[in-house]
C-alpha cells in the first residue's frame, strides 16, 4: 500500500515545479529575443548604394553580407526584417534580417520621390513622398501599393506640400510636411494620420476643415522621437542652413506646438541643428553644422540647459544624417564620412579601436533585430507562473484530500 506523502515534501516538490516552470518561461523568452544589430546604409562612389549590419558591441565589425541596393537610402526596422528605401530610385527593398538577403523589391518609382517608410503592423507600411501629396500604403507581402490618403487639403494659401520623415506612435502616424522651394520655408506642419481608420486627425477642431499641427520652427526633417517618460514629441524643425529653427516640442494629447527649447544660433548650437536622440526626459545628443566650412559636430545637450561645450565627434565636409542609441541606451552611434563610430552615451568617450570603415558616406542608421515580432518577456513569465501555480494547487489539493501519490 503506498505511503501518503508528507505535506512538507509535497510542498517542496510544488515549489520545485514552480521554479522549473519559471525557468522554462524565461528560457523561452531568451530564445525568442534575437540579438539586435546596427543596419547601415551608405553610398559607394563606384558601386552605388550598399547596406550591411554591424555588431553593437566591440569591435563593431560588419557581421552580414554587404548588399548592393539603390543609393540615398533610408533604413527602418520591422520585426525580422529591414526596410530599405532608396530615395534616388524609388525602390523599397524588404530584407530578411536574419539571413540578410532581399525578400522582395517594390518599385514605387522615382517620380513619387519617396522620402521615408514607416512600418505599422503585420505586412502594412506607409511611404511618404515629396513628389506627391498622397501617402502610399504598401503591402509588404504582395508588393502592391495604393493611395492611403491625400494630404492636399492640408495645404494653405495654395502652397504645395512635400512630405518628409514620419513617426508612428500608438495608432497615429505623424508626417512631416513642408513647402518645397520656399525660403524661409514657412509655415510648416505635422499631419496626423490615424492608421486604424486611415483618416486624418484634426489638430484644431475650432477651425473649419481638417488641420495639421502648425509648427513654430522651420521645415521639419530627420527622425522624430517621443521624449521618454512624457507625452511630448520632439521634432527637428530646422529647415536648411541658416533657417533659424530648432528642436520643437509638440503635445501629443492637444496636438499643439509647445515651444522650441533648443534653437539654432543659440544655446551653444551652430547654424544648423540636425539629427538628435533623447536618452531620458532631459538629456540627449545632437548634431549641429557650421557654414564657414561644412562640418558636423556631436554634442550632449539638455532641454533646459542647452548644448554643452563637450564635443564628442567632428566631421568635415559631411553632415551626419542620423544618430542612434543602442537598445541598452549605453552606446551612441554616429556616421562619419566613410564609417560609423561608437561612443559611450554617458561620457561621450569614443569606443573601440576606431570607426567601422565603409566604402562611402553613410546615409542612414537603424537598430534591427533578426527576431520575429516581439512577444513581451512578461508573457513568458506569466505562463511560467501560471503553470507553476497550477501544479502547486494540484499538489496542495491532493494533500488536503489525503490522496496518495507515488514517489
Give a brief outline of the structure.
The protein is mostly beta strands and 407 residues long.
Layout of strands and helices, then pairs:
Blueprint: H1 7-32, E1 36-44, E2 48-54, E3 67-69, E4 73-78, E5 81-86, E6 91-96, E7 101-107, E8 114-121, E9 124-129, E10 134-139, E11 145-150, E12 162-169, E13 172-178, E14 189-194, E15 199-200, E16 213-214, E17 220-226, E18 232-237, E19 246-251, E20 256-263, E21 272-278, E22 283-290, E23 295-302, E24 306-307, E25 313-316, E26 324-325, E27 331-336, E28 339-344, E29 350-357, E30 361-369, H2 377-401
Antiparallel strand pairs: 1-2, 1-30, 2-3, 4-5, 5-6, 6-7, 8-9, 9-10, 10-11, 12-13, 13-14, 14-15, 14-16, 17-18, 18-19, 19-20, 21-22, 22-23, 23-24, 23-25, 26-27, 27-28, 28-29
Task: List descriptors.
mainly beta, 30 strands, five-stranded antiparallel sheet, single chain, 2 helices, disordered N terminus, 13% helix, globular, 407 residues
In words, what does this structure look like?
This protein is mainly beta. It is built from 2 helices and 30 strands. The strands form 7 sheets. Strands 12, 13, 14, 15 and 16 form a 5-stranded antiparallel β-sheet that branches. The longest helix is centred in the first third of the chain and has 26 residues, at 7-32. The protein starts with 6 loop residues before the first helix and ends in a 6-residue tail after the last helix. Residues 1-11, 16-32, 374-392 and 394-407 have low confidence and may be disordered.
Amino acid at each position: 500500500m503506498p505511503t501518503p506523502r508528507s505535506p512538507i515534501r509535497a510542498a517542496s516538490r510544488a515549489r520545485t515545479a514552480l521554479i522549473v516552470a519559471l525557468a522554462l518561461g524565461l528560457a523561452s523568452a531568451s530564445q525568442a529575443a534575437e540579438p539586435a544589430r546596427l543596419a547601415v546604409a551608405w553610398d559607394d562612389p563606384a558601386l552605388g548604394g550598399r547596406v550591411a549590419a554591424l555588431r553593437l558591441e566591440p569591435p563593431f565589425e560588419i557581421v552580414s553580407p554587404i548588399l548592393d541596393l539603390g543609393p540615398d537610402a533610408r533604413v527602418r526596422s520591422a520585426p525580422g526584417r529591414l526596410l530599405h528605401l532608396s530615395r534616388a530610385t524609388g525602390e523599397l527593398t524588404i530584407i530578411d534580417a536574419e539571413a540578410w538577403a532581399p525578400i522582395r523589391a517594390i518599385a514605387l518609382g522615382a517620380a513619387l520621390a519617396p522620402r521615408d517608410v514607416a512600418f505599422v503592423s503585420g505586412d502594412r507600411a506607409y511611404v511618404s513622398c515629396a513628389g506627391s501629396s498622397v501617402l502610399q500604403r504598401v503591402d509588404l507581402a504582395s508588393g502592391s501599393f495604393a493611395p492611403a490618403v491625400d494630404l492636399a487639403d492640408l495645404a494653405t494659401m495654395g502652397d504645395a506640400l512635400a512630405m518628409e520623415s514620419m513617426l508612428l506612435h500608438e495608432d497615429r502616424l505623424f508626417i512631416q510636411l513642408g513647402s518645397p522651394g520656399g525660403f524661409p520655408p514657412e509655415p510648416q506642419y505635422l499631419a496626423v494620420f490615424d492608421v486604424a481608420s486611415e483618416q486624418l486627425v484634426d489638430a484644431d477642431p475650432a477651425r473649419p476643415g481638417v488641420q495639421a499641427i502648425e509648427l513654430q520652427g522651420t521645415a521639419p526633417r530627420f527622425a522624430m522621437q517621443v521624449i521618454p517618460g512624457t507625452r511630448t514629441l520632439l521634432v527637428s524643425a530646422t529647415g536648411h542652413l541658416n533657417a533659424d529653427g530648432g528642436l520643437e516640442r509638440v503635445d501629443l494629447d492637444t496636438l499643439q506646438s509647445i515651444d522650441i527649447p533648443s534653437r539654432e544660433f543659440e544655446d551653444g548650437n551652430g547654424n544648423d541643428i540636425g539629427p538628435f536622440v533623447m536618452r531620458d526626459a532631459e538629456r540627449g545628443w545632437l548634431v549641429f553644422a557650421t557654414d564657414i566650412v561644412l562640418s558636423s559636430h556631436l554634442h550632449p545637450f539638455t532641454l533646459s540647459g542647452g548644448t554643452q561645450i563637450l564635443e564628442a565627434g567632428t566631421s568635415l565636409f559631411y553632415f551626419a544624417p542620423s544618430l542612434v542609441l543602442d537598445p541598452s541606451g549605453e552606446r551612441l552611434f554616429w556616421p562619419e564620412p566613410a564609417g560609423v563610430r561608437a561612443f559611450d552615451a554617458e561620457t561621450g568617450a569614443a569606443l573601440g579601436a576606431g570607426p567601422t570603415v565603409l566604402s562611402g558616406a553613410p546615409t542612414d542608421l537603424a537598430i534591427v533585430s533578426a527576431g520575429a515580432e516581439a512577444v513581451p518577456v512578461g508573457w513568458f513569465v506569466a505562463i511560467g507562473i501560471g503553470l507553476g501555480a497550477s501544479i502547486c494547487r494540484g499538489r496542495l489539493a491532493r494533500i488536503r484530500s489525503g490522496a496518495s501519490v507515488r514517489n
